[in-house]
Specification:
The protein is mostly beta strands. It contains 3 helices and 9 strands; from the N terminus they run αβββββαββαββ. A 5-stranded mixed beta sheet has the order 2-1-9-6-7. Strands 3-4-5-8 form a 4-stranded antiparallel beta sheet. Strand 6 and strand 7 form a beta hairpin. The chain is globular and about 40 Å long.
């Protein structure tokens, strides 16, 4: 119980520019200030690499943030990214709402595709932005009971 609660990743991203620091907590640098030290790690029984983020739009022309992840299933059962991880996005200290992008990519469709143990897939997730100036904090944790027989 305690080990799952302790295993989480956090990331702070500026819109369009992602530069990461630290092992389990991710923060943004701007441009070339700080090279990426790490943008990957274990989240429960899964290995996740946080990729690029970009500003896009939804069907109502709201600004949204689309974040790319590489998801590896290291559990002993078939799993998918969407139902195996909890993703929380915060901007100015307020949680952002999930959204379906105006343009659906193959990676966004991959969000709910099951993959077998040891397999890897690239997925995308999206949230509505409050503004395009403030950074966004991303917290990833495993959902309770995922990857267990």
């Amino acid at each position: 119980m305690g080990s799952m609660a302790k295993e989480k990743m956090k990331k702070k991203t500026l819109i369009l520019l992602v530069s990461l620091l630290a092992i389990a907590t991710f923060f943004v640098g701007c441009g070339e200030q700080n090279p990426k030290e790490t943008d990957k790690g274990n989240v429960g029984e899964y290995y996740i690499e946080i990729g690029e983020s970009k500003v896009s739009f939804d069907n109502e022309d709201n600004d949204i943030l689309v974040v790319s992840y590489t998801f590896t299933n290291n559990s002993s059962h078939s799993q998918n990214f969407y139902f195996s991880t909890s993703r929380k996005y915060f901007q100015d200290g307020v949680q952002l709402d999930p959204v379906i992008p105006g343009r659906i990519t193959e990676e966004y469709k991959n969000n709910s595709k099951e993959i077998q143990p040891g397999a890897t897939i690239v997925v995308e997730d999206a949230v509505i932005l409050r503004n395009t100036d403030s950074p966004v904090d991303i917290e990833l944790t495993p959902l309770a009971g995922q990857g267990k027989g």
